[in-house]
């Protein structure tokens, strides 16, 4: 378990940047895939915006900085508008997570560009890439849990669309449980465990 005191200032700053980039890309992936499937709800909610902060969860940022696992602000879907109905929502979630997983090794392609920068700037960019890969890998695995508030928790919007008004409460409870489990050490460092196997360089 990593606490704030165990992190250097450079680690904190780079981790914050990594979580923001992760949330921005992951939110755009979900909203974009939903739009492709005919569901405009995330777009109408502003989730296709280039502004990364519309995707950011405050608690997701805090947990991401401390434990290198995060989540985006929950999205609302309209299964009835999706071309495949409820199964389409499942496809959007799994497709978005799969796309984010592919961005982990793809980020290694930026390393040669970082080496073209002045030494200090290049090292900072390389470290930022490492942190993004760590956060993204761990977050993809965490968000596979079908807990309200996490990405895969959106399946409940398809299974129980009649519970829409209660969804924010369920999400708050779900994320509170996830946060407590991570802080208590019940959830291991997922990103660190899988990162050596999913990056192009072998070990970020």
What secondary-structure arrangement, pairings included, does this model have?
Elements: H1 9-36, H2 41-44, H3 58-67, H4 86-106, H5 111-114, H6 119-142, H7 155-159, H8 167-183, H9 190-198
Task: Write a concise keyword list for the protein shown above.
globular; 9 helices; 204 residues; mainly alpha
Question: Could you provide a short overview of the structure?
Answer:
The chain is mainly α and 204 residues long.
Characterise this structure.
The protein is mainly alpha-helical and 204 residues long. The chain has one domain (4-198). It has helices at residues 9-36, 41-44, 58-67, 86-106, 111-114, 119-142, 155-159, 167-183, 190-198. Helix 1 (9-36) crosses helix 4 (86-106) and helix 6 (119-142) packs across helix 9 (190-198).
- Main sheet specs: none
Question: Total number of helical segments?
Answer: 9
Strand content: under 5%
Number of domains: 1
The radius of gyration over CA amounts to 17 Å
The count of DSSP E runs of length 2 or more, i.e. the number of strands, is 0
Share in helix: 55-70%
What's the helix-strand series? HHHHHHHHH
